[in-house]
Design goal:
The complex is a heterodimer of chains A (84) and B (454). Chain A is mainly beta and 84 residues long. Chain A has strands at 2-11, 16-25, 30-36, 46-56, 59-68, 74-82. Chain A has a 3-stranded antiparallel beta sheet with strand order 1-6-3, with no helix packed on it. The longest helix of chain B is centred in the middle third of the chain and has 19 residues, at 173-191. Classes of the chains: A mainly beta (84), B alpha/beta (454).
Chain lengths: 84, 454
């Protein structure tokens, strides 16, 4: 198993941003999760969802929707784990 | 059991002095859930192994290697190199009744390093505390790759016992074995604090006699004996020579990290000191009032400095700030400012304890993979309930899942969503919303998987 950061970005206040990452081998078991990187204590800052596209027989594209739950811009990093 | 560090260690002895032996041992250890803790040349190693698995390890080894040999012949001992012979003698000493008794009766056990009436604290870690001003030769010529950025993986240690021309400056055979046994004991303990895999220590031992007359008034007490010793090993003067030796050791041993440990009876400015981040550590054999039976803990403390951990005892003038070690964390257990004076820790006292700050300073991985249940609860029918869980280290990769524990077959019972809050620079709070999709209450458990760290 290995973990990493695929992308770092910013999502505007109360907005959503969708990012995609492609060419992931279809036989890799990959999990995606998002973490804010600028501290703001007291309430959640980020929600995220993952959608999956089988781009070819052996390649997968992941689409990750990142929602800013606050009224200020939030920096975030898109993390992954390859479990196998 | 060797020493007092509560690790089951076994001696592994090979017959052929070639590099293949170490590879065979490493391979066999991997297959049998054992781990090589110490290697002393190609033929002598100490492995951590479950007591019930020692025979399995023995069977996995090539025929010319043995685990815990009942007898070692005189000719086999004679064939060993000095490093191998001392490694073997050290392990035999650590498994003796006398060693166990000495450990059970340590002077000043658990006393803070600046709290013993008859013993001074080990010298502070900074190079500036080394005796005498640094000469131009003390400026390392280059620092291409850190020699001791974090205590993890494998560490090559050049152990140099420096003797002088008089009997008072020389080590007898028992004292040499004692030095190696004590450093072996301390390294087993310190490396065993690693949360994922114990550190492997690869030793290269030299006993060097130099001609220098002791001179307590010398401007640089260390250089007086160190530079001739390094010259005998083929290296230049000053810390640059020590650094070059450590870099060569790392290459020769194929290790992740390296440093040099000197033991001597020559006068030194402090009875034990080290430079933060390496490349060298210096100890007196008599170990001041702490005595030779505490060399292991002082060695572990000083090795902590080599791997960037700060002092925590009050007279070191520590404070609770700063950015120390691999993760750049403050010295939060400093006795001068931590609540209650801090907790027991090798960087604070003569103990086999480690406080929560030191693993960060040493660079241990702080997110070893693990699974668990963080909380259990109940969600009312057709409703959503939200929990939060805080203080998760920000560089840990954590994923969450929720499962019902109330049994109800036929359809999905719950759905969950995770929101994330960066509560501070170093910590994350997870907010987990659980929706009950059914018309009856549902018990749930929230599970986490820590996958590692970036």
């Amino acid at each position: 198993m290995r973990v990493g950061v695929q992308y770092r970005g910013q999502v505007n206040a109360s907005a959503s941003e969708r990012v995609f990452t492609y060419n992931w081998p279809a036989d890799w078991h990959v999990l995606w999760y998002v973490t804010p990187t600028n501290p703001r204590s007291g309430a959640p800052q980020i929600d995220f969802d993952t959608e999956v596209e089988r781009a070819t027989a052996d390649r997968i594209t992941y689409w990750i929707m990142v929602r800013n739950l606050t009224n200020q811009p939030v920096d975030y990093e898109l993390r992954y784990a390859v479990l196998n | 059991m060797a020493g007092d560090v509560h690790v089951h260690e076994e001696l592994v002895l090979g017959r052929a002095a070639d590099e293949g032996v170490a590879a065979s041992l490493a391979s066999a250890a991997e297959r049998t859930n054992a781990h090589v803790l110490h290697s002393y040349g190609p033929r002598v190693a100490v492995a951590q192994v479950d007591p019930t698995e020692a025979s399995v390890l023995a069977e996995a080894l090539p025929g010319d290697m043995s685990v815990a040999p009942a007898q070692i012949t005189k000719s086999a001992r004679r064939s060993l190199s000095e490093t191998e012979r001392l490694g073997l003698a050290a392990f035999e000493l650590r498994t003796s009744g006398g060693f166990a008794e000495a450990k059970a009766n340590r002077p000043f056990a658990d006393v803070v390093w600046d709290g013993a009436d008859d013993a001074s604290p080990p010298g502070c870690a900074e190079l500036a505390t080394a005796p005498g001003p640094a000469s131009p030769a003390d400026a390392p010529s280059h620092v291409a790759v850190p020699l001791s950025a974090r205590l993890s993986g494998s560490v090559a240690v050049g152990l140099v016992i420096v003797e002088g021309p008089t009997t008072a400056l020389q080590f007898d055979a028992a004292q040499r074995a004692k030095v190696v046994a004590e450093t072996q004991n301390g390294a087993t303990w310190l490396g065993g604090r690693h949360p994922v895999q114990p550190v492997t220590w690869r030793w290269d031992i030299d006993v060097i006699r130099v001609d220098a007359a002791p001179d307590p008034s010398a401007a640089d007490l260390e250089a007086l004996w160190r530079d001739p010793a390094m010259a005998a090993l083929g290296y230049g003067p000053g810390l640059a020579g020590v650094q070059a030796y450590a870099e060569d050791l790392r290459l020769q041993q194929g290790s992740d990290w390296a440093y040099v440990t000197f033991f001597t009876k020559y006068p030194t400015g402090w009875f034990a000191y080290a430079s933060i981040g390496g490349p060298r550590l210096v100890m007196q054999y008599d170990n001041d009032g702490w005595g030779p039976d505490n060399i292991d803990r002082v060695f572990a403390h000083e090795t902590g400095h080599i791997f960037n951990a700060p002092d925590e005892y009050a007279s070191s003038n520590c404070n609770c700030g700063g950015t120390w070690g691999y993760y750049g964390r403050p010295n939060a257990n400093c006795a001068n400012c931590a609540a209650g004076g801090g907790v027991s820790c090798i960087m604070r006292a003569n103990t086999w304890d480690m406080c929560p700050s030191t693993p960060y300073h040493l660079g241990f991985p702080i997110c070893p993979g693990r699974l668990g249940v963080q909380f259990r609860g109940n969600v009312a029918a057709s409703s959503t309930r939200r929990w939060f869980t805080h203080s998760w280290p920000a560089d840990c990769h954590v994923v969450w899942s929720v499962v019902p524990t109330t049994v109800r077959a036929g359809a999905g019972q719950i759905r969950w969503d995770v929101h994330v809050e960066r509560a501070s620079t170093g910590y994350i709070t997870y907010w987990i919303s659980v929706t009950n999709l059914t018309t009856v209450p549902c018990d749930i458990e929230a599970r986490y998987a820590v996958l590692g760290s970036t």
